[in-house]
Design goal:
By secondary structure, this protein is mainly beta. Helix content is 13%, strand content 40%. It has 4 helices and 12 strands, in the order βββββαβββαβββαβα. It starts with 7 loop residues before the first strand and ends with a helix.
């Protein structure tokens, strides 16, 4: 479980394809603190650490289903990826409850700078029956974009906007998101449970 508070925008060092799987080698400041089998969210996708090097990198494996449902398959060496280690149960929940299970990808369709913040609009395509199950956003609700816990504004049936403050822009890979960029979306798990209860 995660909170959507990104610890670091780390660098992809190497990508190796093994059959339908992809090994991602990541360089980050806390690689030496990780352990084998530990869960780390990468752009909001929960992946398991499979090896750690003494040079400050570690490796995780993404299976084909993960690549199909997320933007991890679009990563290239040198690109930034948002990282978050799993939440400590004795800590504060600064973001919201994030599972690390990406629901779909969305495309950035608009970037507007306004009064010190940057507004991003994202559009996604979710079947109507999934929307009824809570795979949607609500005004002032929570959504996770590339692993970042954010508050929704201007929620529509297949789009929403988020406002990014300068700190988040500079310390996550939001600084690299442009019109046409593909991002990972995880809808609020509480909304999914509520939607399921409503149809009973």
């Amino acid at each position: 479980m995660f909170s959507g508070i990104v610890e670091e925008a780390a660098t992809v060092k190497n990508i190796t394809r093994k059959g339908s799987n992809v090994d991602l080698e990541i360089a980050c400041s806390f690689a030496g603190e990780l352990k084998i089998d530990q869960s780390v969210a990468h752009n909001g996708v929960c992946l398991t650490v499979v090896s750690i090097s003494e040079s400050g990198t570690y490796v995780v494996t993404a299976i084909q289903e993960t690549l199909d449902r997320s933007n991890l398959g679009d990563l290239l060496p040198g690109m930034k990826v948002n990282l978050e280690r799993s939440m400590l149960m004795n800590g504060r929940l600064d973001g919201h409850i994030v599972q690390g299970h990406v629901d779909c990808t969305a495309t950035c369709t608009e970037v507007v700078e306004l009064d010190g913040s940057t507004y991003f609009k994202f559009e996604y395509d979710v079947p109507r029956e999934m929307v009824a199950k809570g795979y949607t956003t609500v005004e002032k609700g929570s959504v996770t974009v590339n692993g970042v816990s954010l508050t929704v504004c201007e929620s529509q049936c297949n789009s929403f906007k988020v406002a990014i403050i300068p700190y988040t822009f500079e310390h996550t890979n939001f600084c690299d998101i442009k019109v046409g960029s593909k991002v990972n979306i995880e809808f609020d798990i509480i909304g999914k449970y509520l939607a399921k209860l409503m149809v009973r």
